[in-house]
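Weekly sync, protein design subgroup
Attendees: M.S., D.O., the rotation student, P.L. (late)

Item 1: inverse folding check
M.S. brought a backbone from last month's batch and wanted to see whether the design step gives back something sensible before we order anything. D.O. pointed out we never logged the input encoding, so this time it goes straight into the notes. Structure tokens as presented (234 positions):
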């Protein structure tokens, strides 16, 4: 319904503009207000610090652009583009300064996660900024991970791995970038991610309940902001 409503609204606006009833040029001056609204929505609704950071960056950039369009500030894109780098840096900084306590027992032979001297447990984490990366898990145990890409892309291949428990959480944040995840055919993918001017697509085929009565569940969280995330098993 949303794409249809958007098309109807856009068509109505331009039709009224052609009839000289509604000046579209004046309305387009306020388009950064969309960024401000989306940013505030993320700040209020997001339970993750990453989502709140993205919301703050979007709201700040939208406010600057709106002030410029209304004549309160005289700024150009050449002046504000470093804000994208600042936002990417904040995302990476928040991710590095946050740890997660876990009750999983340490297994020296397990790859992909580790514990330090104090007993804190980390899942695999990786960030790409203005670049791309490909990661494959073959013959490894997988119990979750965190990946983020900003102005880039990342491909994660989990088809050669096996899940340690009944379910695992994979958190992916794609900001002006894309991510592709390949999972085994006997995994059930559950999408709990947020898309803001982007998309999170589940292209997997659910396992046959007769052949796989109790499939492993991969819960995909995170966000796609002006980007896309696709999960597939073929």
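Designed sequence read out in the meeting:
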């Amino acid at each position: 319904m949303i794409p249809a409503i958007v098309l109807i609204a856009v068509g109505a606006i331009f039709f009224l503009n052609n009839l000289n009833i509604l000046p579209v040029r004046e309305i387009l001056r306020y388009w950064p207000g969309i960024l401000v609204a989306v940013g505030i929505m993320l700040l209020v609704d997001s339970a993750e610090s990453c989502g709140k950071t993205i919301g703050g960056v979007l709201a700040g950039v939208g406010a600057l652009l709106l002030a410029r369009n209304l004549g309160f500030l005289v700024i150009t894109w050449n002046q504000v583009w470093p804000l994208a780098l600042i936002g990417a840096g904040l995302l990476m900084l928040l991710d590095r300064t946050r740890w997660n306590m876990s009750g999983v027992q340490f297994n020296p032979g397990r790859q992909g996660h580790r514990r330090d001297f104090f007993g804190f447990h980390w899942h695999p984490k990786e960030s790409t900024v203005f670049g791309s990366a490909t990661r494959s898990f073959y013959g490894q145990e997988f119990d979750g991970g965190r990946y983020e890409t900003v102005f880039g892309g990342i491909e994660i291949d989990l088809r050669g791995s096996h899940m340690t428990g009944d379910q695992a959480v994979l958190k992916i944040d794609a900001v002006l970038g894309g991510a592709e995840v390949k999972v085994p055919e006997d995994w059930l993918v559950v999408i709990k991610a947020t898309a803001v001017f982007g998309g999170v697509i589940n292209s997997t085929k659910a396992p046959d309940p007769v052949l796989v009565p109790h499939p492993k569940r991969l819960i995909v969280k995170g966000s796609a902001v002006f980007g896309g995330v696709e999960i597939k098993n073929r």
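Discussion: Residues 61 and 80 are 8 Å apart (CA to CA). Residues 110-232 form one domain.
Action: P.L. to compare against the previous round before Friday.
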